[in-house]
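Hi all, posting the design record for the shared folder.

TITLE: backbone redesign
STEP: 1 of 1
STRUCTURE INPUT:
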């Protein structure tokens, strides 16, 4: 990263923190990882409402929607690690297999690149390990 880009990035972070502080002082130090620990998976009723038949009765089921979400998050690279961890957990809860999740991530290598795919696979594997421990 160049110095100019690093400076711009820091300014953007600072601006975001100031905006969060202006909207809600409690959001200044919000950490998605804390939210992940608080709510590791969404209750089945809410999952079905958001991703399933309530809003889209004839469309995609929750599992398919979550696999698509995993694909979209994978392309973002390491920017959305907590979101990917939570979505992998949700997909498993919705009936997706580890193989389906891995294939979804593999497919995204063409769009997000190999580093993004590798990072997403590492994250998914860590979620699998956590699930196996439970």
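Okay, here is what came back for every position:
SEQUENCE:
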């Amino acid at each position: 990263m160049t110095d100019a880009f690093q400076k711009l990035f820091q300014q953007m972070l600072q601006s975001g923190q100031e905006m969060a502080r202006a909207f809600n002082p409690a959001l200044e130090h919000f950490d998605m990882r804390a939210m992940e620990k608080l709510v590791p998976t969404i209750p089945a009723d809410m999952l079905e409402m958001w991703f399933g038949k309530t809003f889209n009765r004839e469309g995609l089921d929750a599992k398919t929607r979550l696999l698509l979400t995993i694909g979209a998050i994978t392309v973002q690279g390491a920017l959305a690690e907590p979101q990917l961890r939570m979505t992998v957990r949700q997909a498993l809860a919705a009936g997706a297999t580890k193989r389906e999740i891995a294939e979804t991530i593999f497919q995204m290598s063409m769009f997000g690149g190999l580093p993004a795919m590798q990072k997403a696979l590492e994250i998914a594997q860590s979620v699998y390990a956590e699930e196996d421990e439970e």
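COMMENT: Helices lie at 3-23, 32-38, 44-51, 62-75, 81-93, 98-107, 109-112, 114-133.
Let me know if anyone wants the other runs.
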